[in-house]
Each structure stands twice: as C-alpha cells, then as structure tokens.
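Reopening this one. Same input as before:
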Amino acid sequence: MKYLIDHTKRVIHRTTFAGDQCEFHTTPIDKREGTYDNLYLEKLVDKESYQVCIHCKGSIK
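Same output, byte for byte:
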C-alpha cells in the first residue's frame, strides 16, 4: 500500500483514502513524499513523532 508523508505537518496519509479533509494539498510538493516502506513509516511514527492521519484511517502496522 502506498502512503503519502506530509513532512510539514508530520502526518502520514494512506493514499487510497486521502482526500480534501486531510488537507495535505496545502503542503508544498517539495515537503511531501510517497512510499511503500512500512519500516520507514514505523520509524517516523516511533522516533520522529509523526502521526497517522485520522481521516485516512490507515494503519501502518
């Protein structure tokens, strides 16, 4: 599954369910990143204080 990382707001979105309510479109493109790497996402959550978007209802684990 692909995820979109918003590095400005420190939020991880599940691309399949991401929409206007997530407001990731307000973040500059150079501050966004796409990935399939669950280990990388877990590191961001556990060590860098990123949050999983409540609107996408995705789980990275």
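So the earlier flakiness isn't reproducible anymore. For the record, The radius of gyration is 10 Å.
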